[in-house]
Protein: Membrane-bound protein
Organism: Escherichia coli
Amino acid sequence: MSVILYFLARKLLPPETEAVEGGSEAIKKHSQS
């Protein structure tokens, strides 16, 4: 499931965010809430 969210984030977010590893943590926070 997290893999799907990862690819979704890469499509929705700008390419520059790929360098930000904190993006995965943001996804975890959203899935928890």
